[in-house]
Design brief:
This protein is α/β, with parallel strands linked by helices. Helices cover about 35% and strands about 15% of the residues. The protein is built from 14 helices and 10 strands. The strands form 2 sheets. It has a 7-stranded mixed beta sheet with strand order 3-2-1-4-7-6-8. Strands 5-10-9 form a 3-stranded mixed beta sheet. α1 links the parallel β1 and β2. The radius of gyration is 19 Å and the shape is globular.
């Protein structure tokens, strides 16, 4: 590998291996001709079958891949407080000590690349510990209360450009695990909260288009951002989409693009079969109600429906 290699890290167990494979495929198919790609997989007992399927993606484009087994004992002091997450979510804390590069781009497994990641990877972090996009869905009301006044910007941890050299120099891994162990039972966003707390004051804010979440399409949340025009521009032309079209009854933006990618992959038989008719609406409304009680009384709900349509809102949970 050359000094120009784009070093990308993902973390998953066997349950998320297929989603991770689609993320990798999206990177491969949108890479520029000059991009040299290396994937480092922090894996928690991914099966040989899934590994072979992911390796088979080399038929689309050549790349290097390294499988790095996780040790569950590394996470013994951590807890998970959010539904759907496992302790594997803390794997990103280990990146600088397990990947011998000066800089690594970390991606969650629900990422859809829309172009070459070279401009993102080549961002100069300077003396910053990490680069990321502001999470417009999580405002100061939450992070000031739970993380304190030291946190002035809150990044989404689904796309992180990590300064490995500085993490190693300042023992950031130990600080993250200590903070998580002491506070994880009261933190809603677990590892993401820890990264925002520990790296406070040393975060590089990336342009919105490098991590466009579903929240970017919600009119009430767009107004939270420091630049409404920048958020809208990113939503219209994202370079990275952070979304979950692998879920049944998902109707957010980019669903069709994601599932067409699945159709080309070794996992075409796993494309979700959405419900239809009245059953679809009943199931989606019920699942949404379990998370957002009395949502129909809230102005922001109807603003979102007007902007995106009912299914795009209630089908994303």
């Amino acid at each position: 590998m050359s000094a120009d290699t784009i070093n990308i890290c993902l973390a998953a167990d066997d349950n998320y291996a297929v989603c991770m494979g689609i993320t990798i495929l999206s990177v491969l198919k949108n890479a520029s001709k000059e991009d040299e790609l290396a994937f480092y997989i922090l894996e928690n007992q991914i099966s040989a079958k899934r590994k072979a399927e992911i390796e088979s993606l080399k038929k689309f484009r050549e790349f290097n891949i390294f499988w790095i087994p996780l040790n569950p004992s590394d996470f013994k002091q951590c807890k998970v407080t959010r539904r759907g997450l496992t302790l594997t979510t803390y794997a990103r804390f280990l990146i600088p000590d397990t990947i011998p590069c000066s800089k690594v781009l970390y991606l969650d497994c629900d990422i859809l690349a829309r172009g070459s990641l070279s401009p993102l990877f080549n961002t100069d972090l300077g003396d910053k510990l990490v680069g990321g996009v502001i999470d417009i869905g999580i405002g100061p009301k939450y992070y000031k209360k739970h993380l304190g006044e030291r946190v002035n910007h809150y990044l989404n941890a689904g796309v992180l450009l990590i300064n490995n050299d500085l993490w190693r120099k300042y023992s950031i891994r130990e600080w993250l695990f200590d903070y998580s162990g002491d506070n994880s039972s009261r933190l809603k966003y677990n590892d993401q909260d820890a990264i925002n707390y520990v790296c406070a004051g040393r975060k590089h804010i990336l342009p919105y288009e490098w991590n466009v979440m579903d929240a970017f399409y919600y009119p009430d949340l767009i107004e939270r951002g420091s630049s409404r025009e920048d958020i809208i521009r990113a939503a219209l032309a994202p370079k990275i989409r952070h979304c979950k079209p692998f879920k049944k009854n998902y109707f957010g933006p980019d669903k069709e693009e994601y599932r067409l990618l699945m159709a080309e992959s070794p996992w075409k038989d796993l494309i979700p079969q959405d419900d239809s008719g009245i059953k679809l609406y009943i199931l989606c409304l019920w699942n949404y109600f379990k998370v957002h009680n009395f949502f129909f009384l809230k102005k922001k709900f109807w603003q979102r429906v007007k902007a995106l349509g009912l299914l795009a809102i209630i089908g994303n949970k």
